[in-house]
Amino acid sequence: MQPSKTHHDLQETYVRSNGSMGVRTVNLEPPLTQQSSADDADINIMIARYQSTRDPIHLRMRENAKAGVYADLTELGDYQSMLHKVMEADALFNDLPAKVRERFRNNPSELITFIQDPNNRKEAIDLGLISTPIANDDPTTIAQAPIKKPSKKAPSKEVPETEVPETSDGE
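User: That's the sequence. What structure does it adopt?
Assistant: Structure tokens below.
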């Protein structure tokens, strides 16, 4: 079968090893895959390069890749404790009244930025986020008073103790 001038593929029939007939398509165009970067994609070659140079070239290979930043952040604590602090901050933010959360577009980060700006102290006091001034008070001190939630429990009723009659063993 001859390919037409508008088709770039050729279909041909063949006989399989089990005797059945098969049809396969043969591409007559040159491949579009760039073979020049095959070594850069081979994990075995990447590991061998790293072992010989200790250069993490795989981090720099992508076009438009951001430069890596290496820093000693050990004073911040471990990942798990930092994640716990973020989750605790989210929970505290979510405990605020809806109007206050709405003021910060329901974003704890916006609240933190707001609290850190001394120019926002009066509004923060009005919102109940910062305690009223105390001598030498830090302008970013967050109010320590806990937010009271309405109790969902029904008042407990005391059940009087009942006397259990003594059993006699015939004594």
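The mean pLDDT is 75.
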